[in-house]
UniProtKB/TrEMBL annotation:
Gene3D superfamilies assigned: 2.60.40.1190
Keywords: Signal
Region forming the signal peptide: 1-25
CDD domains from the UniProt entry: CBM9_like_2
Residue spans crossing the bilayer: none
Record domain DUF5916: where: 237-338
Species annotation: Marivirga sericea
Protein known as: DUF5916 domain-containing protein
Keyword Signal in annotation: yes
UniProt cross-references to SUPFAM superfamilies, sorted A to Z: CBD9-like (SSF49344)
Pfam entry (one): DUF5916
Length: 726
């Protein structure tokens, strides 16, 4: 009996050992090797010959069926200090094509490759590194949004990359410092995805198979790599970046001239390998890109994305606290009216499944604007594979030196996210409440939404309610505030919104002409006032034909029902539409050329009605690439509106962007924008030299005119910064 029990135990142990060995064999590994690499793209070091390669890339676009015709081979290892990656793309030609030599211009219209590293393996956020075939580096952050995933390139770190063209072999070699990555040595699994872009054939190929109905950077589809001998923690790391800006501004209208000298300091510190502290003192954000102007024909404000680096790492913790159009934290509010004195941010993982985000920013007083303190506390907990919950508290409070005054706004809430095992379902529930002095009712917000997605078909539905006193001073809730152009007052009014949407697209994988046809893309938003009466219903219809080269022809039809309760003056001529019921719509047709040509263009034309009158609109986008030397881009839109007795107006919007590349480190960019709606003609020209990795000298000239080309102001600024890494 004992011998039988012993044999059973031995059999069980052998079976468990076999399962462990099988599981280990099936898990790709990033091995530890004590080796150094010269990053030159040539793979001359012996270590590359000892590593397993990962191949079998799948098609993602223009078709997402089967293995790629042009394959790639990837190898990876780390030496405790750097993660080294080599990739070989087996091209059919020695030619190559890029769109830019400027850092952080995505490789969407270039030859190159991308690696995504979800170092926490939580499918919440990840690092993005890519390099084009001219060795231009792009880095950023992939972050979860309520509906999927998106990424920003405003996050930066120092790393090495080199591309080398070996006839038809396109070779890429990169080295990423482990100290730059947020990881936990108790969790040795990294989610990894590789993408190869061949703009000449307009193709994306991908290591882990993903269908095109999912976002290209969907973190739910990463390959799971086990990291061998992951360091206990990344080396203690300081990144200190002092900068100095000299800025001369001349106000021609008021005949004033002012020159300022502004020193600032930015510090990053790894508290642990997965928790980072950012500090900024007297920050200067003058090097960020100019916002692209738009023509706004709605009654509400337009959302512009954050571009300031301090607010961007782990930004998904703060930017996804609400839903589109109702977000309690919009970091661009901070410093919009008053200069920032200092800011602190602690963000990252405190436990493998727990992330926190803490922000505190103090602004100075400016003219009649009192100084303010802005704070945000966010905690995110992954309950299990399917559910994640987030709780938050946001505070804005007036200050007088070190004293807090009784002028405040606070917002708190909780969110629950759901994602199904088969990746087809996403769910979201939000509950929030704001607190202001003397306001204690109608101060809540709730939302419930669901999305279903499979290849060629998706649908979604949501309902949200916003109380009129759900005030978010640091948020973005434009629809709460209704400006009455007749009485020159703003009325705050709550509402309920329902949303439904669906789309159906068929793919023609065996066709020589067609890539796909989007037969239907429909969405409907209904807005009900506090009494439950419908005051707006918006319908959106869209269809498109995509050809094999991914050029497309499409139509869009929008129909609006608006029960206008307050005067609205869209022409800006002092004549306002009176409260009434308005039904109007507009039909748009357009054509987008293939994006793998040196000359690319998009054209559209629109005709329809607008409130009680008519509207004709058209737009053009032209792009000519003289790469690797220059890139020229022109956008033009016009909107001609006739409101009969209220007047006529044609709004012109033009944006020219000219980029000249001297090499990967030195470039000259000029923006020219002409917007008659905002009565502005602006020229912004910037010479940018990256004289050391992430250390820059900027020379920026700006000139502002009204639409009649009469100068309003001009300025000249010089900025230099230097990044120290310890």
């Amino acid at each position: 009996m004992k011998q039988k029990a012993s044999k059973i135990r031995i059999a069980i142990l052998l079976m468990l050992q076999f399962i462990a060995i099988s599981t280990s064999a099936q898990t790709p590994t990033i091995t530890y090797v004590e080796a150094q690499i010269e990053v030159d793209g040539k793979f001359n070091e012996d270590v590359w010959n000892t590593l397993n390669s990962h191949s079998g890339f799948y098609n993602y676009a223009p078709t997402d069926v089967g293995l790629a015709k042009n394959q790639s081979s990837v190898k990876m290892f780390h030496n405790g200090e750097y993660l080294y990656v080599s990739l070989t793309y087996y091209d059919t030609t020695s030619d190559t094509q890029v769109s830019s030599l400027k850092r952080d211009v995505p490789i969407g219209i270039s030859d190159g490759f991308v690696i995504i590293l979800d170092t926490q393996n939580q499918e919440q956020n990840a690092y993005y590194f890519s390099v084009n075939s001219y060795s231009t580096q792009i880095d950023g952050i992939v972050e979860r949004t309520n509906e999927g995933y998106d990424f920003t390139t405003s996050w930066n770190t120092i790393w090495k990359a080199k591309a080398f063209s070996n006839d038809n072999l396109k070779q890429y070699e990169i080295a990423i410092p482990l100290k730059s990555l947020n990881f936990d040595n108790n969790n040795t699994i990294f989610g990894v995805q590789f993408y190869v872009r061949d703009i000449k054939t307009n193709s994306w190929t991908i290591l882990k198979n993903v269908k095109r109905n999912y976002s290209l950077f969907d973190l739910r589809f990463t390959e799971k790599f086990r990291v061998e001998d992951l360091p206990n923690s990344s080396a203690s790391r300081f990144a200190i970046t002092p900068s100095l800006t000299v800025n001369n501004q001349n106000d021609v209208v008021n005949n004033t001239n002012e020159t300022t000298i502004k020193p600032s300091l930015d510090v990053q510190y790894n508290v642990t390998s997965s928790l980072k502290l950012d500090a900024t003192i007297n920050p200067d954000f003058s090097q960020i890109d100019v916002d692209q102007q738009v023509t706004n024909l709605t009654r509400f404000s337009i959302f512009f994305p954050e571009q300031r680096n301090f607010f961007l790492e782990n930004a998904d913790l703060f930017s996804s606290l609400g839903v589109e159009g109702i977000n309690p934290f919009y970091s661009r509010r901070i410093g919009a009216e008053n200069p920032i004195q200092f800011g602190l941010k602690l963000s990252g993982n405190v436990l493998p499944e727990t992330r926190i985000g803490i922000v505190n920013v103090q602004t100075d007083n400016e003219n009649t604007n009192a100084s303010q303190n802005y704070g945000a506390l966010v905690a995110e907990q992954q309950i299990n594979k399917n559910f994640t919950t987030t709780g938050f508290l946001i505070n804005r409070q007036e200050t007088d030196k070190l004293n807090f005054k009784n002028d405040y706004n606070r917002v708190t809430g909780i969110n629950i996210n759901f994602k199904s095992d088969n990746n087809k379902w996403i769910g979201l529930a939000n509950l929030g409440k704001s607190f202001n002095d003397n306001l204690s009712d109608d101060n809540s917000f709730y939302n419930a939404g669901i999305w279903f997605n499979k290849r060629g078909f998706n649908w979604n539905a949501a309902i949200k309610n916003v109380g009129k006193n759900y005030i978010t001073d640091v948020g973005f809730t434009p629809r709460l505030n209704n400006y009455d152009a007749i009485n020159d007052v703003t009325i705050r009014e709550g509402y309920t919104q329902t949303t439904i949407g669906t789309s159906y697209e068929k793919f023609y994988d065996n066709s020589k002409t067609l890539n796909s046809i989007r037969y239907l893309n429909y969405s409907n938003d209904n807005y009900f006032d506090e009494s439950g009466d419908l005051n707006q219903s918006s319908h959106f219809f869209n269809g498109a034909v995509f050809f094999k080269d991914l050029s497309s022809i499409y139509y869009v039809y929008t129909q609006e029902y608006i029960n206008l309760k307050y005067g609205f003056a869209p022409l800006g001529n002092g004549n306002a539409l009176v409260p009434d019921i308005y039904n109007f719509g507009i039909f748009k047709v357009g054509y987008n050329s293939a994006n793998n040509q040196k000359f690319r263009y998009q054209l559209d034309a629109q005709k329809g009605s607008y409130y009680g009158g008519s509207r004709i609109a058209a737009g053009a986008y032209l792009n000519y690439q003289l790469l690797p030397f220059a890139n020229l881009q022109l956008n033009y839109d016009f909107n001609k509106i006739d409101l009969e007795s209220l007047g006529k107006k044609t709004f012109h919007l033009t944006r020219f962007t000219g980029e000249v590349f001297f090499n990967n480190r030195l470039n000259w960019t000029t923006y020219v924008q002409y917007n008659t709606q905002s009565d502005n003609f602006n020229i912004n020209s910037r010479l940018q030299w990256e004289y050391k990795p992430l250390s820059y000298i900027y020379l920026v000239a700006s000139d502002n005119y009204n639409q009649d080309i009469v100068r309003k102001s001009w300025g000249l600024a010089v900025k230099i910064n230097y990044r120290f890494d310890f």
